[in-house]
Each structure stands twice: as C-alpha cells, then as structure tokens.
Amino acid sequence: MRIPATVGAILLTVLMSACATIKPHETALSIGPYQNFTGRLMVIEPTRRWQVMIHWNGTPEEGMTRLTHAASNRIIQLSWHHETILMLDNQSPSQAWKSITSEEMASNGIILPPQKLALILTGKLPKTLIRKNRGEWEGKINGIFLRVKWSDEKHRLELTDITHGRKAILIIES
After folding, report:
1. What is the mean pLDDT of residues 56-68?
2. How open is the CA angle 87-88-92, to the nearest 5 degrees?
C-alpha cells in the first residue's frame, strides 16, 4: 500500500517535532497566569519577619497591589506603569502617592519589583532564570541571585534572594 505524499509529509513532520528538544529557558512556566488574586505574602529576613494579606491586580506593564498588615493596621498600596512605581502608605503623614524605587522596596524586604513578579505570575520566565528541577529555577534578576520555587498543588511561590539571605513566600488563595 502506498502512502500519499501529503500524509507522508505530515507524518514526517510529527516524528521530527517529537524528537525536538526544548531548552530550559524556553520552557513555559506552569505558574498561572495569575493577574488578579488575593493571598498571603510572608517575608523572612535575617533580622525580621512579617506577613501581610495581598490583593493583586496586575500585569508586567501595569497594575496595583494592596498589602494589609493586620497587626499594625498598616495598608500599603503599590501602583506601577511600566518602570514607574508609586506607593501610598496609610500611616504616612502626607497621605499622598509617592514615587518609590526598587532599591527602596528591597530595603523593606521586597525582593522583586512588581513588574518582575508580574512576569513570573503571568507565566513568563525571565531568560536569566534557568530551570533546575520541576518547579524550580535559579538565576540573576536585577543583580540578585534568585531561586524560584513553585508548588502548583499549594499555589505557593517561594522566592529566595540568595545574595542577601531573604525569602518571600506568596500563597495564592483565590
């Protein structure tokens, strides 16, 4: 029995694509996409720890997040549009939005600026992160050596700043 040329070409294409290898940085993340959720954010540093409720609505291009610390009744809102990040703190005397840098956020334990975190949460892995194991990546982002772990079953994202000894754990609840 003779196979028609078009069927043979399709079979050959399928067989060749089955043998293709995918480089780790080209592999899609199994995270998200999460553009709108509530959850808990825990930050663990060598000298302090804190936990907040997080309400997230954002993409890498723009968004807003609200962090609520129940024990102190402090509410911080972050808003971003491309590279610009604004912050509103309910315990600030001015009660006005102010510009904030990634370095200022890092001094308060925020490992990644919201734009970079939004990349990961929308399932886009920065090319500087290399897959180490299933659900685990390592590499440099903004000069920080970072380990990223994702647990799909627990909806838990763990970011470890190996450079400074900090860890952030995000648990997505809804």
Report:
1. 96
2. 120
